[in-house]
Amino acid sequence: MGVPPRYRDSGFLRAWGRAWSCGDPLALLPYYEVDATYTDVGSGLTFHGHDGVARFYRYMLKFAPDSLIEFESSYGDECGFAARWIWSGTTSGPLRLGDETIPAAGVRFSVPGIAYCKLSSR
Questions:
Q1: Res 2: pLDDT
Q2: How many other C-beta atoms are found inside a 10 Å radius of the C-beta of residue 87?
Q3: pTM
Q4: DSSP notation for 31-80
Q5: What pLDDT is stored for residue 55 in this prediction?
Q6: Long-range contacts (CB closer than 8 Å, 24 or more residues apart) made by 110-115
Q7: Looking at residues 57-69, what average pLDDT do you find?
Q8: Cα–Cα distance between 49 and 44 in angstroms, integer?
Q9: Residue 3 neighbours by CB under 8 Å, 6+ apart
Q10: Which of 11, 31, 45, 80 has a CB 3.0–4.6 Å from the CB of 118, allowing a cystine?
């Protein structure tokens, strides 16, 4: 798998987006600490550790197996950063948003969002 680029390295956002879009949770895990916490604000769910991040990723792919995540820009420092993204794909499974479940419909979508990441001091 290799070592992914670190935040502030050239190509980081593109590589991180490819990891989110490739359909393989193992490609995404090197971007997260083993004890990471991942919170998806839209669904109200929080996931812990690599197992949790992989579980969220599989959950996302059930909703849209052709998911494409494209990071547009980021702002941050050595403590953390925020990155703007677009998530697009085709719905094929249910998606929980808060207390509501959106049924599968086979519809194309494109949703903007922002990721906030705290960087490890390790």
A1: 65
A2: 19
A3: 0.86
A4: GS-TT-EEEETTTTEEEEHHHHHHHHHHHHHHH-TT-EEEEEEEEE-SSE
A5: 95
A6: 110/86, 111/86, 111/87, 112/84, 112/85, 112/86, 112/87, 113/42, 113/84, 113/85, 113/86, 113/87, 114/82, 114/83, 114/84, 114/85, 115/71, 115/82, 115/83, 115/85
A7: 93
A8: 17
A9: 30
A10: 80
Neighbouring CB atoms inside 10 A of 109's CB total 15
Model pLDDT, residue 50: 96
Q: What pLDDT was estimated at residue 1?
A: 55
Pair 84, 92: CB distance under 8 Å: no
CA proximity to 87, closest of 58, 59, 63, 67: 67
Residue 52 tokens, joined: 């949790």
The whole-angstrom separation of Cα 24 and Cα 52 is 14
